[in-house]
Amino acid sequence: MNNILESKELNKTYVVNNKTQHNILKNVNLQIKKGEFVSVMGPSGSGKSTLLYNISGMDNVTSGSVFFNGHEISAFSENELAKLRLNKMGFIFQHIHLLKNLSIFDNIILSAYMAKVSSREKINQRALRLMKQTGISELANNDITQASGGQLQRVAICRALINNPDIVFGDEPTGALNSKSANEIMEILADINQAGTTIMIVTHDVKVAAKTERVLFMLDGNIIAEHQLGKYSKEKNDIKARENKLSRWLMEMGF
Ligand SMILES: Nc1ncnc2c1ncn2[C@@H]1O[C@H](COP(=O)(O)OP(=O)(O)OP(=O)(O)O)[C@@H](O)[C@H]1O
Ligand SMILES: [Mg+2]
Predict the structure, then answer these.
(1) Residue 32: which residues within 8 A CB-CB, separation 6 or more?
(2) What is the DSSP string of 186-232?
(3) pLDDT digit string (tens) for 225-239?
(4) 48 alpha carbon to ligand 2 midpoint, in Å?
(5) Measured from the CA of 51, which atom of ligand 1 is nearest?
(6) Residue 116: inside a domain, yes or no?
């Protein structure tokens, strides 16, 4: 089983005011291999976020199927989906919902305590390791109001990784950040990917997408083209060359 995630003829339709039907995803066929780092680009409104929500079991598909590790999750119950998301998936969203009355550390460990995947001691150790890796160790006891946007994004990454997920989804994970912070977040994600976690993100930013392995281009509800960049490594790759190559391709796409 080479694909961690696969969609077959995936459709998503919204009915607005009980009459107008909007076909947002149109027969999307997508395969993501285990260990891949994929990004999705495309114009605003093309369906990128909708694709992410539907392929990750956060939303119900209208028709078609989604397979995760060979299991048809589009046929799962809400309960099964919640369990799957908690244990196997991590989510990093731009408008991260952190709990205001909990410390940063508690925000990170909460879902792991809920999932009960290991002892609280082990979970705490893992949280400390992740915080160290993302450079926010000193913030453990802070309130979330006492952290910058970039730091909160790191909190969101720690939280997404606390259950050691097979795959991490990000909708504009660097969207609210300046380019320096965005760069640092992407280096963290590249490291996580090197360590084996599959990652799928949506981004508008060429610099961000240039650090991913494969770029999908969405237009009007479908993936109309893709561009293979290969795995990114800070040591081995000339990032400017990757950015230029990707920019040229996007220009050909009319983006
Ligand atoms: N709950 C909903 N009800 C009705 N229409 C929706 C709903 N959610 C999204 N849409 C529509 O689906 C289309 C695709 O939205 P989506 O958020 O997936 O786009 P996107 O590519 O992520 O855009 P952006 O780059 O601006 O984030 C848009 O036209 C949007 O208005
Ligand atoms: Mg979006």
Answers:
(1) 3, 4, 5, 6, 38, 167, 198, 200
(2) HHHHHHHHHTT-EEEEE-S-HHHHTTSSEEEEEETTEEEEEEE----
(3) 999 999 998 888 889
(4) 6
(5) 18
(6) no
Residue entry with tokens 């999750």: 73
How confident is the model at residue 103, as a pLDDT?
Answer: 95
- The number of helix segments (H) and strand segments (E) in the chain equals 8, 10
Task: Indicate if ligand 1 lies below 6 Å from the C-beta of 24.
Answer: yes
**Among the atoms of ligand 1, which is closest to the Cα of residue 172?**
27
Shortest-distance ligand to the CA of residue 40: 1
Question: Does residue 76 fall inside a structural domain?
Answer: yes
Q: For residue 148, which amino acid is it? A: S
Answer yes or no: are the C-beta atoms of 157 and 189 closer than 8 Å.
yes
Question: Is residue 46 one of the residues assigned to a domain?
Answer: yes
Give the Å distance between the CA of 45 and the centre of ligand 2: 7
CA of 25 to the centre of ligand 1 (A): 10
175 lines ligand 1 (CB under 6 A): no
Specify the number of domains making up the chain. Answer: 1
Q: Which residues of 233-245 are buried (b: 16+ CB within 10 A; e: fewer)?
A: eeeeeeeeebbee
pLDDT digits (tens, 9 = 90+) for 103-136: 999 999 998 998 887 899 999 999 999 999 889 9
Does any ligand 1 atom lie closer than 6 A to the CB of residue 174?
no
| CATH code for the domain of 86 | 3.40.50.300
Residue 114 in any domain: the answer is: no
Q: How far is the CA of 34 from the centre of ligand 2 (A)?
A: 24
Query: 189 is in which domain, residue-wise?
Result: 3-100+169-252
